């Protein structure tokens, strides 16, 4: 299972009555459940294979469990970050980089959404403890490079890495997948949650999980009364239920699978190139 979303055995059974939403139409499902022994995806690889591969880079997808408007599922951040990580890892592996995607951590920081049903919060201090344990496991096993690929705006691993890096031999780095390409080249509507970007990406990689756009909210948000806050120069976390009526931030109505495909392709190719360079890099000689 991936992030507890699906079991593989009953997928056909579960979806056979609803051909319009057959799972085999989803790129996400194909990537995870298509076939065994994709060596870049730990969830689909056995120990016999793992023992033979000199893995040098692990990728830890980190998402969230939270409401995404009226039209996207609570799994949205996990589905997206797992897909991006795995597709980029596949391309990097095919170029000779020994990378492996670890299971996704499905809980993010949701302290501003505690009053929204079934948003599940994992505090930054808990995330730091989880990350330390993952890094320690990799360290003793000789895998000394780790990318934390983030898929949720409330997560920020930079300060955690600043604290953890001096205590581990594992070279740590992080990226937000949705910032690996310039969104303004692909999307017209501003936003950052259940918006045009996220909706387009989900329409492309997991259309069976997207409700019809007619059911989607508008993603309207309230303005902060203080100018510096509106201008983004002073920051505070947003109380989600006050700021957004439907939990979305940004209109999803201009979304399309074609836009999602173009953005995903830009992100994945950028990330795959990074993974190839990161795998080849000498950790003791990173600067020139
Ligand atoms: Zn999201």
CATH fold label:
Rossmann fold
CATH classification class: Alpha Beta
Bound molecules: zinc ion
Largest sheet: 4 strands, parallel
Helix content: 25-40%
* Overall geometry: globular
CATH architecture: 3-Layer(aba) Sandwich
Strand % is: 5-15%
Average of pLDDT: 89
Order of helices and strands: HHHEHEHEHEHHHH
Gyration radius over CA: 19 Å
Could you name the CATH homologous superfamily?
Creatininase
How many independent structural domains? 1
Structural notes for this entry:
With 288 residues, the chain is an alpha/beta fold. It has a single domain (15-280), classed as Creatininase (Rossmann fold, 3-Layer(aba) Sandwich), CATH 3.40.50.10310. Helix content is 35%, strand content 7%. The protein is built from ten helices and four strands; from the N terminus they run αααβαβαβαβαααα. The protein has helices spanning 11-15, 27-33, 47-50, 76-94, 124-140, 158-164, 196-205, 227-230, 240-243, 257-280; strands at residues 57-62, 99-101, 145-150, 171-176. It has a four-stranded parallel sheet with strand order 2-1-3-4, covered by helices on one side. Helix 2 (27-33) packs across helix 4 and helix 4 (76-94) crosses helix 7. The chain is globular, with a radius of gyration of 19 Å. The model is unreliable at 1-24 (pLDDT under 50). Bound molecules: zinc ion.
Short recap of the structure:
This protein is of the alpha/beta class.
What would the keywords be for this entry?
288 residues; alpha/beta; Rossmann fold; four-stranded parallel beta sheet; 4 strands; globular; disordered N terminus; binds zinc ion
